[in-house]
Write a structure and sequence with these properties.
The chain has a single domain (4-193), classed as Formyl transferase, N-terminal domain (Rossmann fold, 3-Layer(aba) Sandwich). 38% of the residues lie in helices and 22% in strands. The protein has six helices and seven strands, in the order βαβαβαβαβαββα. It has helices at residues 15-24, 44-51, 67-80, 97-102, 123-129, 165-193; strands at residues 4-10, 31-38, 56-58, 85-88, 107-111, 134-141, 151-158. Strands 3-2-1-4-5-6-7 form a seven-stranded mixed sheet, with helices on one face. α1 (15-24) runs parallel beside α6 (165-193) and α5 (123-129) packs across α6. The chain is globular, with a radius of gyration of 16 Å. 38% of the residues are buried. It binds 5-O-phosphono-beta-D-ribofuranosylamine. 5-O-phosphono-beta-D-ribofuranosylamine (GRF) binds next to α1, β5 and α6. 5-O-phosphono-beta-D-ribofuranosylamine binds next to α1, β5 and α6.
Amino acid sequence: MKRLRLAILISGRGSNMEQLLKACQDDAYPAQPVVVISNRADASGLSTARGFNVRAVAIPHKNYESRESFENEIDRVLCQTGVDIIALAGFMRVLTPGFVSRWAGRMINIHPSLLPKYPGLDTHRRAIEAGDKEAGCSVHWVTEGVDEGDVIAQSRVPVKAGDTAGSLSERVLLEEHALYPKALAKACELVRKKPSS
Ligand code: GRF
């Protein structure tokens, strides 16, 4: 079966990206990476991607006068590369409704909380302060509202006595690494089943 052409958008270290790239090394995996894009030229994930022989492009948002012109450049690269599906992996820019609607049903994100709990930033601190016994991560479709799209898959971890935001984030990150490749495979199946627009 033809593998879907995957773009991964990052802003930093790209440890989730790395797990996706590892999964894609298996020819039977339903996606193949065709480009990694970062909005920061100094993102260490760019060189990690190149280490996997994947094209890695910096499109610094600071070089553009508006969110739309920044996203138009991303869109141009995605279209020129024939991308079928986008995985956001620690991409720290909120996307405009225009961009989101162009890629609706073909763009997913990983978020370090059990959505719908704690959309946005600082998820681990908020879970600890709320006294939650459980935390986790979610992979979801990207829609206009930040971290609001339907959940594709989740993993749970215990919150332990004495946890700090740092210790909890380490535990959750390990689960993110296991979850994202599985959730992307599931998303690919769903994209394939959709009639092409
Ligand atoms: C992850 O915790 C992810 O869930 C969040 O940002 C972090 C990115 O980490 N959106 P990395 O760049 O994948 O290492």
